[in-house]
Specification:
Strand order of the largest sheet: 1-2
Order of helices and strands: HHHHEEHHHHHHHH
Number of helices: 12
Strand content: under 5%
Distance between the termini: 28 Å
Amino acid sequence: MIAVLTAAVVGLVISIIGTPVAIRVLGRRGYGQLIRDDGPTSHHTKRGTPTMGGLVIIIAAVAGYVAAHLVRPSEPSVSALLVLGLMVGLGLVGFLDDYIKISKQRSLGLRSWAKMSGQVAVALAFALLAIRFENDQSLTPASQAVSFLRDTPVVLPVALFVIWALLIISGTSNAVNLTDGLDGLATGASVMVFGAYTLIGIWQFNQSCGISPAATCYEVRDPLDLAVVAAALVGACFGFLWWNASPAKIFMGDTGSLALGGALAGLAITTRTELLLVILGGLFAIITMSVVLQVGFFKLTGGKRLFRMAPLQHHFELKGWGEVTIVIRFWIIAGMCVALGLGIFYAQWVVGT
C-alpha cells in the first residue's frame, strides 16, 4: 500500500507543480490550441490556449511509478513496464499529431493513415510482448483468453489475440480522444477509471492464487504493480485537472488523450478485465457510440443528422447547456459507470462463479 500511495502522491505533486511550468513554456513558444470552425462558437475563446499538456501527465505518472519503487525497493514488473511503454508510445504518436497541428497551423495533424499506423505499431509491439515473459507460475502479462471479470474459456490463437488487442487499444485511445472536447471532461473521467483499476489491482493481489488459493482467486501476473501504475495515473490526472478544469489554462491534446486511452487499455488487458472496461469506461463508450451513430445515420438517411453535432458533448452545447453543466453531468455518468463496473467485479467474487 505504501508503494501505491507514494505513486499517487508523487504523480499528483509533480503534475500540479509541473503543469504551470508547462503552461508558461508552451505559451512562450506559441504552442496554442487550434479550434475547428464548424464547432460551437463558444470554443473560439479557447483559441491559443497551450496544448500538449499530456506531456506533464506522462512524466508525472512515470515519475510516480519510479518513486514508488525507490521508496519500497523492488524490481519493476514486466506488466507495469509494458503498460507504461504503451502509454508513452501512444503519447508520442499524439505528440507528433499535436506538433504538426501547431507548426502547420491547421486543425488536423497527422494524416489519418499515419496516425493509425503509429497506433497500430505501438499496439502491435505491446500485444506481442505481453504474451511472453512467463513467471514462476507460468503467467504472462496478458492472456490469450478473452476476459471479462477474469479469463473466459474463449482462448484465441496468437494472430487473433493480436487483432483483439489492437481493437481494444485503438478503440480505447480514440474513445478518450473523442471525449477530450470540453475543459476537464476526459481528465476527470480518467481519474475515476484509473481509480477503479487501482482498487482492482489491490484486490486481485490480496486474492491472488499465490497468496490466497481458492476457487475465486485471481491469476494475474503483477496485480499490485499494476495498481501502482494506476495510482500514479490517478495522481497525475488529478494534478493536471487543477489547471485543466474550466476555464482551462492548458489542454492535454492528443498527446494526453491517446496516452491515457492506451494506459486504460493496457490495464484492462493485463488485469484480465478487457470487456469490463466497456462498463468502467462507460462514458467513453457512450461518446464514441454517438459518433458511430451520427456517421451511420448521416449515410443511411442521405445527409440527415441524429445529433446536432458529434461527439455527444457538443450536441448538448448546441442545445444551450453550459460547458460546466455538461462536464459535471457527464462526470456523474462516468462515476455511475465506474460504480456499476466495480459492483459487478466484486459481486462475481462473492458469488464465486
